[in-house]
Specification:
GNAT_dom, twelve-stranded mixed beta sheet, GNAT family N-acetyltransferase, transferase, alpha+beta, acyltransferase activity, acyltransferase, 2 domains, Aminopeptidase
Length: 301
């Protein structure tokens, strides 16, 4: 028999969770400073989780924690921790019982969807759809330039068209990934762009590029340098549809890596939405490791 016993003392589990998460990010490619900073960004949310011991036949065999958050009028749940202690003798039955408890806890608080972020594959969540991945790659001191493909700063005249297209594409990505419905996705897109680019092209730390080949515009790029210590975040490195299939995708990645190194950062991090297998395959083939995979499923009842 598996029992789930809620805990009231965060000091009994939160510091250990943050240490484990930092170690997982490091193992997946971040430096100590970058991993620590990424963990600190999520600390406040983790402090609101409800944690519970997983108890099997009277023995403590693991820990589970869940939380909920309301954004844009939608409440979603998150399973932040679900692990067994290897020496305690827990089973897959105990893990499933813990997952059921976490999903029920979130549903009772109004969530109709629950997310989990995996730093390594876990078959327990195979029935959760992949909503996105964070990928990361060290760029070295001087990446090899992409033959024929260059990046230049976007002009003020080009920016409004680019931003409108990016907001629309981001909305479509959210909908395709199954994260939000169309109205919620549009609201999130507008809100995120307003937050990220409050001053347009002059927004601090952001580099918005036009990718060119032989004088022709073939795509665009959007990078945030110093997103984490030593890490640039690539919001997009995109080749326009009519120019795809000519090797420009790899070239766009290299332009991003060159810009990352030129800014003094040592790694480039990217996000890819679930369902975008083409981008996932490109990232894998160009050396980007999965830092974290985000999955979710709908809750009923």
């Amino acid at each position: 028999m598996t029992d789930i016993m809620p805990l009231s003392d965060r000091s009994s589990w939160l510091p250990d969770h943050l240490r484990r998460l930092t170690a997982a990010y490091r193992a997946n490619g971040l430096t100590e400073a970058a991993a620590t900073a990424m963990v600190e960004r999520g600390r406040e949310r983790a402090e609101d989780w409800q944690a519970a011991e997983i108890v099997a036949d009277g023995r403590r065999v693991g820990l589970v924690a869940a939380g909920v958050v309301t954004e844009n009028g939608t409440t979603t749940g998150r399973i932040g921790i679900l692990r067994l202690d290897p020496a305690a003798g827990g089973t897959d039955r105990d893990r499933l019982a813990a997952r059921d408890w976490a999903e029920g806890w979130c549903a009772e608080r109004g969530a109709r969807q629950v997310f989990v972020a995996l730093t390594e594959p876990d078959t327990l969540f195979d029935d959760y759809g992949v909503r996105g991945q964070n990928r990361v790659k060290p760029v070295g001191i001087a990446p090899t330039p992409a033959e024929g493909l260059t990046g230049r700063p976007m002009t003020a005249a080009e920016y409004p068209v680019w931003r409108a297209a990016q907001e629309a594409e981001y909305t479509a990505d959210i909908i395709r990934a199954g994260a939000l419905d169309p109205d919620q996705a549009r609201a999130k897109s507008a809100q995120d762009f307003a937050r990220l680019l409050p001053d347009g092209l002059a927004s601090t730390g952001h580099a918005i590029l036009v990718l060119e080949n032989g004088g022709r515009t073939v795509g665009t790029g959007w990078l945030l340098h110093g997103f984490l210590p030593g890490v640039t975040f690539g919001y997009s490195l995109e080749v326009h549809p009519e120019h795809r299939g000519n090797g420009h995708g790899r070239g766009a990645m290299t332009v991003g890596e060159l810009a990352t190194a030129a800014a003094g950062d040592q790694a480039l991090m990217l996000n890819v939405f679930g369902g975008n297998e083409v981008a996932m395959n490109l990232y894998t083939s160009t050396g980007y490791r999965v830092l974290e995979e985000h999955r979710s499923r709908e809750l009923t009842g």
